Amino acid sequence: MSKVMVVEDDANLREIYGIRIAAEGYEVVSAGDGEEALAVAVREKPDLILSDVMMPKISGFDMLDILRSTPETSSIKVVMMTALSGEDQRQRGERLGADKYLVKSQVGIEDVVNTIHEVLGDRAAPAPAPTPAPEPQTQTTPNNLATAPAQVDNGQPIPGAPAQ
After folding, report:
1. pTM of the entire structure?
2. Could you give the C-alpha distances from 43 to 29, 37, 38, 116, in angstroms and in order?
3. Of all helices (H) and strands (E), which one includes residue 100?
4. Pairing state of beta strands 3-7 and 27-31?
């Protein structure tokens, strides 16, 4: 089971994301700011960090820079999530090594979950739709009469029925 760390200074958002991510089968750990996130990352070694950018103590960008320059955490996947929608902010995140950069106002929680699956590469391809069983077909004669036995209870042929 993959481990995802949610780094968000808003406790309500942190809880909502944590519950939804856990529902996908991930183990979830969390941190309320960048400083705490660095300590948790070294201790817990998550497979992916979903992090806000604007946080107290250490910003998400500074946290990402430290993660990437620390051997124990340099390979952790990081998805940055922020209210900052400027292209310069996105480029900064990419330059620092973010695997994905999401703008909160442009994504919903399902988009976030899908991004986590995408970055971790753990979503199995959808199973092919089952092939429906063929329906039994009745053979008919040129007159559209079924070729079922053409006899009545007394064993006599039915008048006008095709011969067997």
Report:
1. 0.73
2. 11, 10, 9, 21
3. strand 100-103
4. parallel
Domains recognised in the chain with CATH numbers: 3-120 (3.40.50.2300)
Distance, in Å, from the CA atom of 21 to the CA atom of 27, rounded to the nearest integer, reads 8
Residues 6+ apart with CB under 8 A from 102: 79, 80, 81, 82, 111, 112, 115
Mean pLDDT of 93-113: 92
Contacts of 137 (CB under 8 A, 6+ apart): none
Please report the DSSP string for 8-75 in residue order: -SSHHHHHHHHHHHHTTT-EEEEESSHHHHHHHHHHH--SEEEEESS-SSS-HHHHHHHHHHSTTTTT
User: Which two tokens mark 120?
Assistant: 């971790």
pLDDT tens track for 37-71: 999 999 999 999 999 999 989 999 999 999 999 99
* 85-94: long-range contacts, CB 8 A cutoff, minimum separation 24: 89/53, 92/61, 93/53, 93/61, 93/64
Distance separating alpha carbons of residues 142 and 91, to the nearest angstrom: 73
Cβ atoms of residues 5 and 41 within 8 Å: yes
Question: Residue length, the chain?
Answer: 164
Confidence of residue 75 (pLDDT cuts 50, 70, 90): very high
